[in-house]
Amino acid sequence: MLLPNCGSYWVNTSQVMYIGPGETAQVLHRDADNWFQHMAPTWPDTPEVTISAMIGLEEVTEELGATRCVPGSHRWPELNVYEFDVETVPAELESGDAFVYSGKVLHGGGANTTPGRWRRALHLSFVVGWLTPEEAHPLDHVDGLADRSPRVQRLLGQRSYDPRPHLGGGLWLRHVRPLEDQA
Q: Within 13 Å, how many C-alpha atoms sit on residue 42's CB side?
């Protein structure tokens, strides 16, 4: 979904999301709203810039606060119209299942209506390499990455972004050189 729009991509967010007993539903939102200025001029034909996955660490039911989504909202003609009274569909998951969705889809965590159970799910998202991610992973994962594969290094922001491989240029450089060329 992302590679048609970029040379590579990197981790945007990686977090375990808990929804406790009695918590209300999260406001519907789009993950791609982080880059609203990029999306607005060409909405709804804006290229995909981020994709997300909600992965069940255990059973995730509607009662536990399964992520709700609004099917088709990525194609709505108006970007800044948020229909909060629309029907949502819960993404119920078994342990290990994943709900993968476009960053342009309206969604939000559901209400946990159980008296004593927590919802635990892993949220993992990726963003095109030419945008700044929501979380500053390059600052968190410095030690121990030298022995990792180039792919892992790139995903965690320890390699430069080359929008046109082998033609020169690039983004996320240090001293005008790609990060991977520096010892």
A: 9
C-beta separation of 145 from 139 below 8 A: no
Q: How far apart, in whole angstroms, are the C-alpha atoms of residue 100 and residue 151?
A: 21
Nearest CA to 101 among 57, 59, 71? Answer: 71
Angle at 34 between CA 30 and CA 38, to 5 degrees: 100
Question: Looking at the whole model, is its pTM more than 0.70?
Answer: yes
Residue boundaries of the structural domains of the chain: 3-135, 137-183
| 1-15, 52-66, 147-161: the lowest-pLDDT one | 147-161
Q: Is the dihedral of CA 38, 77, 81, 64 positive or negative?
A: negative
Alpha-carbon Rg for the chain, nearest whole angstrom, is 18
109/151 Cα distance (integer angstroms) = 31
CB 74 within 8 A of CB 105: yes
List, in order, residues 6 or more apart from 136 with CB less than 8 Å away: none
Question: Hey, what CATH topology would domain 3-135 get?
Answer: Jelly Rolls (2.60.120)
